[in-house]
# Entry
Amino acid sequence: MIPDFDNQLYKLIDNALQEDVGDGDHSTLCCIPADAKGKAVLKIKQEGILAGLDVAEKIFRHQYPAAVFTRFKADGDAMTVGEKAFEVDAPVHTILQCERLVLNCMQRMSGIATLTRSYTELLEGYQTKLLDTRKTTPNFRLLEKEAVRIGGGVNHRFGLFDMIMLKDNHIDYAGGIEAAVERAADYVQRYRPDLKIEVETRSLDDVRTVLRIGGGKVFRVMLDNFTPQLVKEAVDLIGGTFETEASGGINRDTIRDYAAAGVDYVSVGGLIHQAQSLDLSLKAVVV
# Structure
């Protein structure tokens, strides 16, 4: 669950507009009267899954609360070339200042949602769920993870603060899985009882170690760079004692093999960093 979504979104909007507008939108100031009102429509120019409609409305209304935002589609809908997603009535200055931010957000989010949907469709018929990762664009994670959710995926931890995830470097620096898990469990008991602990394993021997020492401490085991066959062996060993997650190099060609191995989750960093933005445009409606 993305924490405090609206407050984070409004900070993102303010920072993005400050970056873009600076000391003034001089292209608009020079030729459009300050009191001019207008209308614009979001046109779809590429097939895919629509994402960012809620965000677009909040951008316009954050700048001009009385903006009239009329939806023709919803987040998560399939979209085809020539359709309209929304129409907005607002001061022309507001429309022109928000135009690029709205498009950047929706194009990027729609690309991620479209790629995510293509993965989730491959998981139909299996219990396995699709997770995103922290392989995100700095300062844009909020909307990238929201796009994954719109596309049918499940958000993994949002950041370093909302889960303990003992990865290979933590384990190596700590002196091994047993030391890392014991210290993490002690930390949780002392300071943050709400935090869950996930442990990365790199071999079946690592899995056996977590089974031996992780009871009541660990909630999920990550099977990192395991083949589908090794994932099946690991899942059979774990036997439901912990949740299981397969990670590392999973793509659309292999994801069903991992799901067939019985793992609870697969995580795919490519949902975000390999997604291609989709083509959308915001056009003035001239009466």
